[in-house]
Amino acid sequence: MRIWGAGAAAILAGIGAGSANAQVDPLAPMAQPAAATYAQYAAPTSFEGYKYQLMARARREGVRESTIQAYVPPISLNRRVMELDRSQPGGPPNSSYIPPFSPYRRQHVTADLIRRGQARYTSTYSSLNRIQARYGVDPGVLLAIYGHETSFGAVTGGFDLLEALASLAYEGRRREMFESEFVSALKLIDLGVPRWRLKGSYAGATGYPQFMPSVVVRLRADGDGDGYADIWGSEADGLASIANYLRNAGWKPGLTWGVVVRVPSTLNRAAIRSTLQAPRCQRVYARHSRWLTVGQWRALGVVPVQSGLTDRDVATLMEPDGPDGGGFLLTNNYRAILDYNCSNFYALSVGLLANAITRR
């Protein structure tokens, strides 16, 4: 999952800063540094002290002592991942500016991704059919996420996960999240994942699906039938894991993610404005209208220009480039893609790439 998307992202959206008040192991041989130093760039000796806090938390959460002793003390502070995290783009807190979708679409729904996705669709057709039969998820969407996240497995990230997660936890801006993910990475070792497999993005996303470690623990799946879910070495396992994630996020079999529609210039947008309050990613969901049946949308002059939805299906309208830029009717399955990476541009580009891969 992009961090969002293209997977993990998938994943960082809507998560706030964590607590800086985790307890210190009373048996630790080294004194804990002052809490005020955690959110600052600090000397390596302070990071050395912080590692005892990570060890104590891992111990409380059931990680084997042998794993803790073998893999936590050697970790080094990685200032590069902290720099990358701090340099992530973001507008002013009160800014309402939304960039146009078209440039993003051109960058992420490319002829090359379509061509390679179609080739993967042909070469993995039987495997995709098995995964669809088990999870009910559209194979085109699986390949689109796979292509978006890692360029079909070519770019999965080379950062050491334990080092990256510990460094970001030490930095302190999202301490609770990254400490929890660090412990989950240790749990993967306890579950038999080799230490050398724990590579990924600077923010901790790993494997073909670009899952955070906690998601790997919960949702990785065996797609090739060998009894082991290897999201780093088995493409079938990676695709099955993406399918498992989407099903867990509420994907409904047999329902498209959305369709392109013609929107009349006379549409009263104030009358269709949603009054729902999203529990997370509020700016993302604020761009969606009320939910109406496709039949009700037709009565308002909003007409699908492609098949895929019946008049009984319910959908929300979004116009990513404004009233004159075209629109989409989006279903519950679009929201499942948003759960993977809470970005409208990400989810739209995944859906459009999926359509192109499967020639819909």
Features:
alpha+beta; 360 residues; 7 strands; disordered N terminus; 16 helices; globular; five-stranded antiparallel β-sheet
Low-confidence stretches: 2-44
Kindly state the percentage of residues in helix.
40-55%
Strand percent estimate: 5-15%
Count of extended strands: 7
Could you describe the largest sheet, including whether it forms a barrel?
5 strands, antiparallel
Report Rg: 22 Å
Structural class, judged by helices and strands?
alpha+beta
Termini separation (Å)? 25 Å
> So what's the overall shape?
globular
For the largest beta sheet, what order do the strands appear in spatially? Answer: 4-6-7-3-5
Topology as a string of helices (H) and strands (E): HHHHHHHHEHHEHHEHEHEEEHH
pLDDT averaged residue by residue: 88
Number of helices: 16
Could you give a short description of this structure?
With 360 residues, the protein is an alpha+beta fold.
Describe the structure.
The chain has 360 residues and is α+β, with helices and mostly antiparallel strands. It has 16 helices and seven strands. The strands form two sheets. It has a five-stranded antiparallel sheet with strand order 4-6-7-3-5. A two-stranded antiparallel sheet has the order 1-2.
Q: How are the SSEs placed, and which strands pair?
A:
Layout: H1 9-12, H2 44-60, H3 65-71, H4 79-86, H5 101-108, H6 111-123, H7 125-135, H8 139-150, E1 159-160, H9 161-171, H10 175-190, E2 199-200, H11 213-219, H12 235-248, E3 258-262, H13 282-285, E4 291-293, H14 294-299, E5 303-304, E6 314-318, E7 327-330, H15 332-340, H16 344-357
Antiparallel strand pairs: 1-2, 3-5, 3-7, 4-6, 6-7
Helix pairs in contact: 4-9, 5-16, 6-8, 6-16, 7-12, 8-12, 8-16, 9-10, 10-11, 15-16
